[in-house]
Q: What sequence folds into this?
């Protein structure tokens, strides 16, 4: 059992890809279940929740508002991964790192939309990608990934007289900041300028800050209401300003992107891929972290 024919596990690409949703009862988890149910070539084959969750033992389709699908939510990811071709994971950093290790053992596809990952978490996921086909992105919508590509190109084209600010807003329940998408955009504009984001990012301003440092990449974080996600990259120059903006109105766009990524990764060798790879946007732009292992 495994994620792709190329992994040597013997899956037929002519049958539906069996997918499981980690954190299946959450808002994003329910959206993922619905996206799998609607997708051609994919089938919902399982889901997990944390121990003690009220969703354990319930039908995953009923939890997602689809009606019974004959698939029960469990708290046993180890057993689940022996039964599926891939997992969709928008959970927490600690859970995602644990799932990555299990997916590597099972040689299955792991699609990661979890944000707030530390450098140590990233290193563990990269190690797992030596044995699993992993697609990891701070945002899986087509529009956002186009925005990332455009932001890099604009940053490359403009001189240092243009200051760069990244503004993001999300719902009041989001727990990490800046958002994973904002950091994707920061990495993109830094790559466009040939600099390291960590050395130029300004994530907070308070009190007497002094003048804006040359070459800084600023971040502003807004939280409130039920905003799904809004991101803007502002290039402010002398006498003119360029703004690139994406507004998400429905989590379904991220869920559909995640399913698309899983189906794409099924036919790929083990490695760590970005959503830009899935969408074919990496040609002619800098590589934002793709690693492929033979």
A:
């Amino acid at each position: 059992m495994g994620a792709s024919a190329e992994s040597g596990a013997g899956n037929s690409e002519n049958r539906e890809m069996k997918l499981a949703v980690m954190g299946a009862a959450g808002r994003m988890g329910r959206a993922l279940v619905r996206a799998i149910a609607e997708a051609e070539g994919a089938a919902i084959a399982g889901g997990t929740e944390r121990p003690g969750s009220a969703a354990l033992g319930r039908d995953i389709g009923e939890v997602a508002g689809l009606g019974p699908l004959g698939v029960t939510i469990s708290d046993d990811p180890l057993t689940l991964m022996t039964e599926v071709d891939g997992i969709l994971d928008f959970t927490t950093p600690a859970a995602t790192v644990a799932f990555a290790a299990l997916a590597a053992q099972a040689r299955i596809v792991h699609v990661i939309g979890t944000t707030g990952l530390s450098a140590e978490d990233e290193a563990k996921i990269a190690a797992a990608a030596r044995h699993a086909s992993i697609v990891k992105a701070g945002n899986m919508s087509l529009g956002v990934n186009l925005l990332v590509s455009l932001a890099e190109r604009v940053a490359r084209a403009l001189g240092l007289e243009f200051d760069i600010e990244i503004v993001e807003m999300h719902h009041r329940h989001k727990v990490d900041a800046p958002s994973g998408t904002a950091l994707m955009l920061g990495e993109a504009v830094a790559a466009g300028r040939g600099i390291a984001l960590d050395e130029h990012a300004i994530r907070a301003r308070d009190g007497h800050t002094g003048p804006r440092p040359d070459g800084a990449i600023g971040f502003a974080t807004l939280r409130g209401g039920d905003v799904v996600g809004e991101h803007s990259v502002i290039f402010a120059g002398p006498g003119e300003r360029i703004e690139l903006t994406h507004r998400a109105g429905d989590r379904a766009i991220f869920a559909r992107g995640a399913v698309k990524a899983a189906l794409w990764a099924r036919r790929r060798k083990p490695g760590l891929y970005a959503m830009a790879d899935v969408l074919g946007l990496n040609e002619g732009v800098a590589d934002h972290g793709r690693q492929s292992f033979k």
In short: The chain has a mean pLDDT of 90.
